[in-house]
Amino acid sequence: MNKHQKPVLTGQRFKTRKRDEKEKFEPTVFRDTLVQGLNEAGDDLEAVAKFLDSTGSRLDYRRYADTLFDILVAGSMLAPGGTRIDDGDKTKMTNHCVFSANEDHETIRNYAQVFNKLIRRYKYLEKAFEDEMKKLLLFLKAFSETEQTKLAMLSGILLGNGTLPATILTSLFTDSLVKEGIAASFAVKLFKAWMAEKDANSVTSSLRKANLDKRLLELFPVNRQSVDHFAKYFTDAGLKELSDFLRIQQSLGTRKELQKELQERLSQECPIKEVVLYVKEEMKRNDLPETAVIGLLWTCIMNAVEWNKKEELVAEQALKHLKQYAPLLAVFSSQGQSELILLQKVQEYCYDNIHFMKAFQKIVVLFYKADVLSEEAILKWYKEAHVAKGKSVFLDQMKKFVEWLQNAEEESESEGEEN
User: pTM surpassing 0.85?
Assistant: First the structure.
């Protein structure tokens, strides 16, 4: 019997091409190669960018990203806390880095371009660079004032061109940096550099997206976390746009909280006297004007009811509901401007909710009779202060009542003259 040979699997071993192999370096060897290349390139940042571009195919940037960025920023590998590991050995450090550059915006912007090119070429470094910048911000105490300034300028420029996200700023909220005033001082320099690249709206928009708009006060110690202190500090530093932004954000936050609490109290049908006391306390505590509160009250009152879907029934339901809360609105419409804001809110609401279109005039008359609105405010609204939404419909509805008000005014004037 012939022995049949068993089939054998054959295959080919693929060898990694030489140019695709990464040299296996320890961090120190990686450092030496990088430092040597940067020293050879010198102050020619184009040559630096080319060196980093070509060396990335040979050195393992992915593994040693922190070493790479430490050297590009500080000129040396950094120990935890930010001290230079090779401070005693100048052969293992380079002066061709951000910290040794001239302290001016144009020079630091040129360095920022080196980082931009490197990260565009090696996309996997994007997250590592973000982590590196968060780390460097935590190490600020270890750096000199001029080094902090250069790092702030670099961060601001890179935030401006989108290389870094605004979330890196969370490192500044660290207690030790806040207590010693480093966080606020660094933030001012960073924002100045950022706003030299982008306008104030772009900066504030980025802060909102990163949910940092409500945390800016945390740059200061707890006993100084007030809008007034922030506004003075940033305005004195030439950043009034940020002061104004924070004031608006704080006011919006306060109003949202007030609206939420008001809604809760109205849904529980709290006595109107209690609601009035609560609103007055909040106005005093948060320095809120009456004009800011009247619109919130209207919104909350209208949200407190499940409205009938039938147009012929909703007007009756609305008048009954608003008659109940007219005394509340009357307390916070003591100024002419507040009355006009309320009238505009009613107009917008009746336009946006089609079942209320025919109820507008009835609501205004109810508020007039309940001393929520004065005839002066109604006449001013009619002549010039109405908004565009449905104005022809609402002005037509109000025509007869306005004529009656004008006639009544004329009669009272003539009676006054006779007396």
Answer: no
